[in-house]
Amino acid sequence: MERRTQMSWEQLQAILKENKTTRAIEERDPPVACPFDGAILDIHPRGRRNCPMGNYTWTGGSKA
Fold first, then answer.
1. Is the pLDDT of residue 63 over 60?
2. pLDDT tens across 17-34, in order?
3. What is the C-alpha to C-alpha distance for residues 62 and 45, in angstroms, rounded to an integer?
4. Does residue 20 fall inside a structural domain?
5. Chain centroid offset of residue 15 CA
6. Sign of the dihedral defined by the CA atoms of residues 52, 53, 59, 60, in that order
7. What SS3 string covers the chain?
8. What angle do CA 16, 46, 61 make, to 5 degrees?
9. Is residue 8 within 8 Å of residue 23, measured between CB atoms?
10. Is 25 inside any structural domain?
């Protein structure tokens, strides 16, 4: 018989809290390098940041 692991509501709430904390940190301190290859991100108007290699786009933060 296959044993299933179930997630509790407390675990789901912990994941949500962690995601909110991570988002707040990323909005306060946007990334400067691609998390995949380490290349410095190009910064475009309105806050979008792109990896010059095309591996990553960050669109978070304020959009001025």
1. no
2. 999 998 888 788 888 999
3. 11
4. no
5. 14
6. negative
7. CCCCCCCCHHHHHHHHHHHHHHHHHHHHCCCCECCCCCCECEECHHHCEECCCCCCEECCCCCC
8. 20
9. no
10. no
Nearest alpha-carbon partner for 34 in 60, 57, 1, 2: 57
* Domain boundaries, position 44: 31-64
In angstroms, the CA 41 to CA 58 distance is: 9
Rg value, the chain, Cα: 17
pTM for the structure as a whole: 0.55
Considering its fold, how many domains does the chain have in total?
1
Let me know if residue 50 belongs to a domain.
yes
37 part of a folded domain = yes
Q: Which residue has the tokens 């410095």?
A: 40
